[in-house]
Amino acid sequence: EKMQPTIFVIFGGTGDLNARKLAPALYNLYLEGWLPKQFSIIGTGRTKLKDDEFRANLLKDINQFSRSGKVKSEQWDIFSKSLFYQASDLNDAETYKEFGVRIQQHETEWHTRANVIYYLAVAPNFFPIIAENLAKSKLTKDAERTRIVIEKPFGHDLESAKSLNQLLTRIFNERQIYRIDHYLGKETVQNIMAFRFANSILEPTWNRNYIDHVQISVTEQLGAGERAGYYDGSGALRDMIQNHLLQLLCIVAMEPPVSFSAEEVRNRKVDVMRAMRRFSPEDVRLSTVRGQYGGGWIEGKEVPGYRDELGSESNTETFAAVKFFVDNWRWQGVPFYLRTGKRMHQSASVITIQFKDVPHFMFPAAAADNISHNRLIISIQPEMSIRLQVQAKRPGLDMVLNTVDMVFDYKGTYTNQAPEAYETLLLDTMLGDQTLFMRGDQVEEAWDLIMPILNTWQNRKSLNFPNYSADSWGPESAEALIARDGFHWFTLP
Ligand code: BG6
Q1: By CB neighbour count within 10 A (0-12 exposed, 13-18 middle, 19+ buried), where does 90 fall?
Q2: What is the 8-class DSSP label of residue 254?
Q3: Residues with active-site annotation
């Protein structure tokens, strides 16, 4: 596809997200030839900076955070010419007028109209302010050429998500709105769709008749740290499950779409969300677990507990585990266990599909001493692999079975480096492809699903926090949640 002339206006241009993710991603897109010739980035923030200062800051950031290593000066000389900075006061109409002037200057210089992408890498209280002002200044009138990218969090609860959606859809057409969930841009997450829908051997077993249960586990060694102030108003359920983990669940559980188009794929994902069983307060008691980390040691370093980092006796959860059901024909009775937490023993995002055991085990009982279950293990990060665990005969004169792995490993299969999620997603905003972005109705369904959990938790405050220590697998009750059903959380070695 021919790339249109493009201008990115990055709100939060001096912020952390631009430094760590957006600027390095755009730079790598440039290196790999994905950017149009006529391209510019206008960073904006409260700080007053000259273009040169902005460029120097980003050079430092890209050197530190880019996957492609140290920046080469010939390349930087070209790329940095497309970086500009404009200080702004987001409440002031004048600011937006100036953006308009800048955009026109580029267009005049290029002798053509440009696509303009407004990227809101700012705190969520600015989303409505920016959106309204862009509209008032007529900067987003052209629905074909202008787009708006909204970073998470998309709402704090169902009500606020709905009103944000209402505000945005009053001003923009849905096809101009790009709601980011960066998990959808991860190479291994996109591959789940390729794996499911480009192979005929999986579909016949991908249902309640063969699958026993599904686990989606996203654990981090990192603590809340300097983000504790922000994080405390959120917690693990809002921060991770409402978006990232439920997105993963949708991709695992969705019906095969007719085509790989934004509407087909997103329709099928919404179908899953709508089929998910809603919780009564009693369900919340039985099917959810929350936790908060205390202090401890991680890899030889002493780390403080969450309340110490925050400096107050907060009841915000830094760990959550939930057992969900998808009430449709394919998944009736199959539990989906989701868990996520900070300051845990391992940083790993892993989906485990556990299959039912054989209907009749014909070998002598002793042959089964060392076997476990048939599992498909999709490792998203840091290991990028898909493994199928099967039983095999151990070489020897007796009939003894072992569980062995059939492995597809990115490292062993491909030599090219996988792009960062933000490279994929930024490129898609330029191409106008919304497949990997969240549609408004899906976000609302996800909030609708977790609201009863949030509300019930809110009302029940006698907690034994902290209830897990750093470097553990979370609270013991999380193990109990899954052990009651006869399973245990799977972890890669
Ligand atoms: C973010 C959360 O959306 O995702 C963070 O706000 C979390 O709390 C992060 O650490 C995890 O992303 P990744 O890509 O490092 O798995």
Answers
A1: middle
A2: P
A3: 244
Q: How far apart are CA 446 and CA 273, in angstroms?
A: 7
Q: Is the dihedral of CA 118, 119, 122, 124 positive or negative?
A: positive
Return d(Cα 149, Cα 127) in angstroms, integer.
Answer: 10
Tell me the one-letter amino acid at 287: S
Q: Is the CB of 220 under 6 A from ligand 1?
A: yes
Q: pLDDT digits over 96-120, tens only? A: 999 999 999 999 999 999 999 999 9
| Cα–Cα distance measured from residue 405 to residue 402, given in angstroms and rounded to the nearest whole number | 10
Q: What are phi and psi of 258, to 5 degrees?
A: -70, -35
Decide whether any atom of ligand 1 lies within 6 Å of the 239 Cβ: yes
Among candidate residues 315, 303, 343, 316, the one with its CA nearest the CA of residue 223:
343
Residue 285: phi and psi, rounded to 5, are -65, -40
- CA of residue 378 relative to chain centroid, distance: 16
What pLDDT does 1 receive? 56
C-alpha 423/C-alpha 34 separation (Å) is 10
Tell me how far apart the alpha carbons of residues 137 and 118 are, in angstroms, rounded to a whole number: 13
Tokens of 218: 């996203």
Residue 442 CA to residue 419 CA, distance in Å, equals 26
Length of the chain: 493
**Alpha-carbon gap, residue 170 to 379, rounded angstroms:** 40
Virtual CA dihedral for 102, 108, 109, 110, nearest 10 degrees?
110
CA–CA distance, 360 with 386 (Å, rounded to integer) = 27
DSSP symbol at 205: G
Probe residue for ligand 1, chosen from 220, 246, 293, 438 as the CB with the greatest number of ligand atoms within 8 Å: 220
pLDDT tens for each residue of 345-386: 999 999 999 999 999 999 999 999 889 999 999 999 999 999
Share of the chain above pLDDT 70, in %: 100
Q: Are 477 and 301 in contact (CB under 8 A)?
A: no
CB atoms within 10 A of CB 141: 11
User: Structure pTM?
Assistant: 0.97
> What are the residue ranges in the chain where pLDDT is below 50?
none
Which residue CA neighbors atom 9 of ligand 1 most closely?
240
211: amino acid identity, one letter: I
β pairing state of 293-294 and 146-150:
unpaired
Distance between alpha carbon 141 and the CA centroid of its chain, in Å? 30
Distance, first Cα to last Cα, the chain: 43
The residues, ordered by sequence, that sit 6+ positions from 234 with a Cβ below 8 Å of its Cβ are 153, 156, 316
DSSP state of 276: B
Place of tokens 């300097």: 226
Sequence-distant (6+) residues with CB within 8 A of 191 are 386
Q: Known binder of ligand: residue 471?
A: no
